[in-house]
């Protein structure tokens, strides 16, 4: 009996420390309190920089002291995910990073929601409530310049993108009337507030854009034609700058500006339930991609039924803002869109926070209460590959980049200890959990679990693989550390693998059949 419990403990340890073979490396970064990471930018040396909202003083991985009620914690990682340097940026109040990207000069641009007065890194007092705080960083994380922009009320969650001329487009949500830097009164409860900055951070022009209710920006895009796209959520009917009534409770509202900030067109996009906008991409000179999370079934602009509570809803728009195509993807619960990129191969990579189990488009069960869900889509939004990543608790997706080697790095906030895919315990409340995926650009589609069976599981001396209506192209077995053990090319629909010489523990199987792939697990007794 003692031997049985020793084996059980060993199996449990292997399961808890198992890592999906697609994970090349991962790291948990944090201090003893909450450090929520949702922003990442690539560095010119092949590494990356995290922008973390930190409430932590020196502890855990954090070697720089806390400045205020909440700071921006910059963490520079090398190509293997190791910390190279770190800095805290902030004033004595709360400074929440809301947008972060690399710039053409090798540095970074950071947009912060701030209520700090002049203190520490902040050279100007708050203009009222919360303001936009725009910070230009050099490659080493030092501040090149910073500017506090706001009115007398709250101006929240600024987004920023570098423009063609080396300046920046800023878009955020404003409740301010004429005051401070704001030159126009609000049109509704909250409006889009767009500003063009020069390369030194000075305001060149601004425009307050909205209807009579609440309108909130979530992303901005600088276009190749010199114009700009603003994307967000709207509650407003026809009024002010809004040319269409709302379709449901909350809709996507997409606004095109010309180079001088004038509205060229706007489009209200939605179904009969809440549709929450998240991100913008420019596919080519004639196509914009918009994405978010939808509760709507077939109604309004939505042409596909919902799968669960919230689903990913993607659309392409032409140069006049008209819908070209759309796709709904999800599982049986809520799948909340976070970010997306167009990869160097021309495919879309979309990241979400998922609460769904195996169902609908989701081919893997949830690991915990909330997981990362990473999707690879072709140019027509067809699902090619997917991965559910998580521990036994809550893991909230933030953003992603493609690094210089065309590998994908995702980052979010985690409270999970060692479990599922997570190999390190939580250091505090929320930590930054960053993962590099080693082969996410494969042009193969994830197969559904119903198409093949692995048995018995747990297995003894042999494990069987069976698939319906197809044949296996290859089966590759990895150990719990992600190391390839054996690769087979059976070209049959039934295959038995002798595992009598395998050590006891957890193994992963990468199975490819009929141009589709799935990664599954089995336990060797």
Structural notes for this entry:
The protein contains 1 helix and 36 strands. The chain is mainly beta. The protein has a domain at 451-524: Immunoglobulin-like, CATH 2.60.40. The strands form 9 sheets. The chain has a 5-stranded mixed sheet. A 4-stranded antiparallel sheet has the order 1-28-27-26, with no helix packed on it. The model is unreliable at 1-18 and 441-446 (pLDDT under 50).
Low-confidence blocks of residues: 1-18, 441-446
Distance between the termini: 16 Å
CATH topology term of the domain at 451-524: Immunoglobulin-like
SSE class: mainly beta
Our count of helices gives 1
Multimerization status = single chain
* Topology, number of strands: 36
Strand order of the largest sheet: 29-36-35-32-33
Q: What is the CA-atom radius of gyration, in angstroms?
A: 24 Å
Per CATH, the architecture of the domain at 451-524 is: Sandwich
What is the secondary structure topology, with strand pairs?
Layout: H1 2-17, E1 23-29, E2 35-42, E3 48-54, E4 71-77, E5 83-89, E6 95-102, E7 108-114, E8 131-137, E9 143-149, E10 155-162, E11 168-174, E12 191-197, E13 203-209, E14 215-222, E15 228-234, E16 251-257, E17 263-269, E18 275-284, E19 287-294, E20 311-317, E21 323-329, E22 335-342, E23 348-354, E24 371-377, E25 383-389, E26 395-402, E27 408-414, E28 431-437, E29 445-446, E30 452-455, E31 462-467, E32 472-478, E33 484-488, E34 494-498, E35 505-513, E36 516-524
Parallel strand pairs: 29-36
Antiparallel strand pairs: 1-28, 2-3, 3-4, 4-5, 6-7, 7-8, 8-9, 10-11, 11-12, 12-13, 14-15, 15-16, 16-17, 18-19, 19-20, 20-21, 22-23, 23-24, 24-25, 26-27, 27-28, 30-31, 31-34, 32-33, 32-35, 35-36
């Amino acid at each position: 009996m003692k031997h049985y419990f020793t084996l059980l403990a060993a199996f449990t340890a292997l399961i808890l420390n198992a890592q999906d073979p697609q994970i090349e490396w991962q790291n948990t970064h944090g201090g003893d309190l909450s450090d929520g990471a949702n922003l990442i930018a690539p560095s010119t040396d092949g590494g990356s920089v995290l922008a973390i909202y930190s409430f932590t003083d020196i502890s855990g991985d954090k070697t720089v002291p806390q400045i205020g009620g909440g700071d921006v914690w910059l963490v520079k990682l090398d190509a293997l995910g190791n910390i190279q340097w770190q800095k805290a940026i902030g004033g004595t109040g709360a400074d929440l990073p809301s947008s972060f990207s690399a710039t053409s000069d090798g540095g970074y641009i950071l947009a912060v929601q701030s209520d700090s007065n002049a203190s520490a890194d902040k050279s100007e007092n708050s203009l009222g409530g919360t303001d936009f705080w725009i910070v230009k960083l050099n490659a080493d994380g030092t501040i090149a310049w910073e500017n506090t922009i706001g009115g007398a009320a709250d101006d929240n969650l600024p987004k920023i993108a570098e423009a063609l001329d080396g300046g920046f487009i800023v878009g955020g949500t404003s409740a301010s009337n004429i005051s401070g830097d704001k030159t126009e009164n609000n049109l509704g409860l909250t409006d889009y507030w767009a500003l063009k900055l020069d390369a030194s951070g000075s305001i060149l022009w601004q425009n307050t854009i909205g209807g009579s209710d609440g309108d909130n920006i979530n992303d901005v895009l600088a276009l190749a034609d010199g114009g700009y796209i603003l994307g967000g959520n709207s509650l407003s009917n026809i009024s002010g700058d809004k040319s269409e009534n709302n379709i449901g409770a909350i809709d996507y509202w997409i606004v095109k500006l010309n180079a001088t900030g004038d509205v060229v067109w706007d489009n209200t996009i939605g179904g009969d339930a809440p549709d929450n906008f998240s991100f913008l991409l420019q596919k080519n000179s004639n196509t914009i991609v918009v994405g978010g999370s939808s509760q709507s079934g077939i109604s309004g602009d939505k042409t596909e039924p919902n799968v669960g509570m919230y689903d990913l809803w993607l659309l392409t728009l032409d140069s006049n803002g008209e819908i070209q195509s759309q796709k709904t993807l999800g599982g049986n619960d809520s799948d909340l869109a976070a970010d997306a990129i167009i990869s160097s191969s021309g495919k879309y990579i979309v990241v979400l926070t998922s609460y769904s189990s195996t169902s609908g488009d989701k081919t893997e069960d949830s690991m915990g209460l909330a997981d990362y869900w990473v999707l690879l889509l072709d140019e027509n939004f067809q699902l090619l590959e997917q991965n559910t990543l998580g521990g036994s608790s809550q893991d909230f997706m933030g953003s992603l980049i493609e690094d210089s080697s065309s590998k994908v790095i995702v980052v979010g906030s985690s409270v999970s200890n060692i479990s599922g895919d997570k190999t390190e315990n939580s250091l505090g409340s929320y930590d930054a959990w960053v993962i590099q995926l080693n082969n996410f650009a494969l042009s193969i589609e994830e197969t559904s679990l119903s198409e093949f069976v692995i048995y018995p599981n747990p297995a003894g001396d042999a494990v069987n693989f069976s698939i319906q209506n197809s044949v296996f192209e290859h089966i590759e077995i990895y150990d719990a550390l992600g190391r390839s053990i054996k690769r087979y090319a059976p070209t049959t629909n039934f295959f038995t693998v002798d595992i009598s010489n395998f050590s006891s523990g957890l193994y992963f199987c990468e199975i490819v059949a009929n141009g589709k792939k799935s990664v599954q697990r089995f336990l060797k007794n």
